[in-house]
Design goal:
The protein is an all-alpha fold and about 280 residues long. It contains eleven helices and no strands. Helix 2 packs across helix 3, helix 3 packs antiparallel against helix 9 and helix 8 runs antiparallel to helix 11. The mean pLDDT is about 80.
Length: about 280
Amino acid sequence: MEELLERNSCFNCNFSPLNSAFCPNCGQKKLTKKDLSLGALTQELIQGFFNFENAFFRTLKSFFFSPNNYVSSYNLGKRKKYISPIKWFLIANAIYFLFPFINTFTTTLQIQLSGLIYSNLINDLVETLISSSTVDLETFHLQYNDLTKTLSKIFLLALPLMFSCVTYLTNFNERKHKPLLFHINYSLILYSFLLTTILCLFPSIHSLIANGGQAYINDTTITSVSFVSLNIYGFFLYRGFFKSGLVKNILRTVLLNISFYLLIFAYRFLLLVVTLVWMHFN
């Protein structure tokens, strides 16, 4: 331990001589006797917890009440006080998969085979796969649903990435000042709102205040609620982000609304194909 304390160079970048409490080259703190005690571990744990807690609640407040300020501040480099959009999206994913009131993104085989725009096209294919498998219909459904739930956790990130590409293309003239990464951060927050609020919070409140409430929650009602809520939230989220005239903004809004729902169907279809292929070869 004495060798560590007596070292006169930085452990991180080897800057020498290190005559101050912090390395002038990389900023790492010079080790002291206190840093090597059990008390340092306790202090680091407490500081880490409260720093995360402060950032979490600050981000939570901004996420609901000033999303544009949150994302624009983060994009412009004010990142210390916020949780990054990608981490916030992962938190939203965790909440969604812990409280799956609506299986929009897990999408059971029964939903895939009925009610979606491509359902009639895939029924024969799925029936052929079931008949050629070694399990009965009920077991096939159970195996599919378990596997697709796992795969959806991986593929769900594809949705905001695809949507951000659409917003980037509709805002291509601003690409020098607003690179694709900026669009990705905005899209991550928009989909975080979809996961936590529309697919978790709204249905959970509905089920608490109504007897058998979940029976009335289906793809139609969720689509209606999500259309209104996402447009309101999206207005405040993207407010000031797109710089163009009234007509262009209206056309962009229509295009983004259409692409939003088309991308959800594309995601569901991709998830179906990947799940069936995985089941076939495993």
